[in-house]
Write a structure and sequence with these properties.
Layout: E1 4-9, E2 13-19, E3 29-32, H1 39-56, E4 66-71, E5 75-76, E6 81-82, H2 95-102, E7 108-112, H3 113-124, E8 132-137, E9 141-147, E10 150-151, H4 180-184, H5 188-198, H6 214-220, H7 225-249, E11 253-257, H8 259-263, H9 265-275, E12 286-289, H10 296-309
Parallel strand pairs: 1-4, 4-7, 8-11, 11-12
Antiparallel strand pairs: 1-2, 2-3, 5-6, 8-9, 9-10
Bound molecules: zinc ion.
Zinc ion is lined by residues 161, 172, 174, 176, 179, 181.
Length: 319
């Protein structure tokens, strides 16, 4: 049996788990994502997390055959790092180097987290198609793309930075404006609601200060005028963004995931299912919600790790 390690580096937390041939996830260990751009601190903290994950499995890091990492992006290839990620308060973390320092194997592969999600969805669920997209709406917004059964690597999935609003009203965490993520991600939806409150006459019982959350907005709609207006626009931008994704990659299935979707499943899914055909000139894809919940990136990371031990078992992409 080969032992593989999966790591999910998200905007708010990092999770790691060790698995055998079945790639089953049991009790992943979790730590908060780094708040400072100190490579030495990051490397030390990651080593501790890997040791804890191995210890949970009754192993040491020396037992790990291969590692798959799904990280918030964008990712650059050399040196392996997260480059100015809009949703992490740090720059240029040397992820691959840090992981290699924590284990005894050179079999380490770092991919965009949404690409890992797409690998998991395609390999273990997939809707029976080799042309699909995994779209995550969480702290950020991104996609992993499978074409002809092969995941597209690199930063192909940074669809959150597609321009959906030519008026470029809202600034994005990447420094741009009018980007899909600037309106619809979990951290930006409250900012957008505040903007609509300040520039419209929507009545609201919501507190539009810095404490407003995406969860507050979903909970208040449809009774609250501002929340309802915000979500109507949320649907509008999602339809424009998803139509662009469909025209670019022609998926026959789109799996949705990420915390905003998972906590508001039908509210996010239904308008896309009902109205996407009005926005595309090709056959609209089937749309569903991943069954893997918030474990999907870890699941894909394990599959990517396993592919390095047994190439072809899981067709994972190169950066
Ligand atoms: Zn952007």
């Amino acid at each position: 049996m080969k032992t593989v390690l999966g790591i999910d580096i998200g905007a708010t937390k990092i999770r790691a788990t060790v698995s055998g041939d079945d790639l089953r996830i049991t009790d992943p260990v979790v730590k908060r994502s780094p708040a400072v751009a100190d490579p030495d601190v990051f490397t030390a903290e990651l080593a501790t997390l890997v040791e804890r994950a191995c210890s949970e499995a009754g192993l040491t890091p020396a037992a790990i055959s291969a590692v798959g990492v799904g990280s918030a992006g964008p990712i650059k290839r050399t040196p392996e790092a997260v480059l100015n990620p809009p949703n992490l308060p740090v720059d240029n973390l040397p992820i691959e180097r840090a992981v290699r320092a924590a284990v005894d194997t050179d079999q380490v592969r770092v991919l965009n987290d949404a690409v890992c999600g797409a690998v998991a969805e395609h390999e273990f669920a997939g809707g029976g198609t080799d042309d699909m997209v995994y779209l995550t709406v969480s702290t950020g917004l991104g996609a992993g793309v499978i074409v002809d059964g092969r995941p597209l690597g690199g930063n192909t999935g940074e669809v959150g930075h597609l321009t959906v609003d030519p008026g470029m009203t809202m600034e994005c965490g990447c420094g741009g404006a009018g980007h899909w993520e600037a309106y619809c991600s979990g951290v930006n939806l409250p900012r957008y609601a505040r903007h609509l409150s300040q520039h419209g006459d929507h009545g609201t019982a919501l507190s539009t200060d810095g404490t407003l959350s995406a969860a507050d907005i979903f909970a208040a709609a449809p009774d609250d005028e501002l929340a309802a207006a915000t979500l109507a626009q949320f649907d509008h931008w999602n339809l424009i963004g998803l139509a662009d994704v469909v025209h670019a990659f022609a998926p026959s299935y789109v799996a949705l995931g990420g915390s905003v979707v998972l906590h508001n499943r039908d509210r996010v899914l239904t308008p896309l299912r009902e109205r996407l055909s009005d926005h595309v000139m090709v056959d609209p894809p089937a749309i569903g919600v991943t069954e893997f919940g918030d474990e999907i990136v870890l699941k894909g990371a394990l599959a990517v790790a396993a592919d390095q031990v047994s190439p072809g078992a899981s067709p994972s992409p190169q950066l």
